[in-house]
Design brief:
10 Kd Chaperonin, Protein Cpn10, Chain O, 3-stranded antiparallel beta sheet, 6% helix
């Protein structure tokens, strides 16, 4: 299975969705603003103009945790007969890096 239309099929974000603070230099900052979270890719992704998958099933893609914490798409899970587990759909433009 491959994902299309610049969408990634990913394992859902499992954070606790509680605001976490870090104190540094006497100032409190929200930890989610400076943390990247990896989600596992569940289907190959490739752009129609390229021959091989840019991101393969099993790869980890990283997002800013604050985006996963606040975005509706990160909460909405889907079912599909071709994928054994629930998943979320994310836009490739939200990905910070692949590892």
């Amino acid at each position: 299975m491959k994902s299309i239309n610049n969408k990634l099929l990913l394992k859902p974000y499992e954070g606790d969705r509680k605001i976490k603070a870090t104190v540094s230099g006497g100032f409190a900052t929200v930890t989610q603003k400076s943390t990247l979270v990896g989600l596992e890719v569940l289907a190959d992704f490739n752009r129609e103009t390229e021959g091989s998958p840019l991101i393969k099933k099993g790869d980890m893609v990283y997002f800013q945790e604050e985006l996963l914490y606040a975005s509706e798409w990160a909460r909405k899970t889907y079912d599909c007969p071709s994928i054994e587990e629930k998943f979320i759909i994310a836009d490739i433009g939200s990905v910070v890096c692949v590892g």
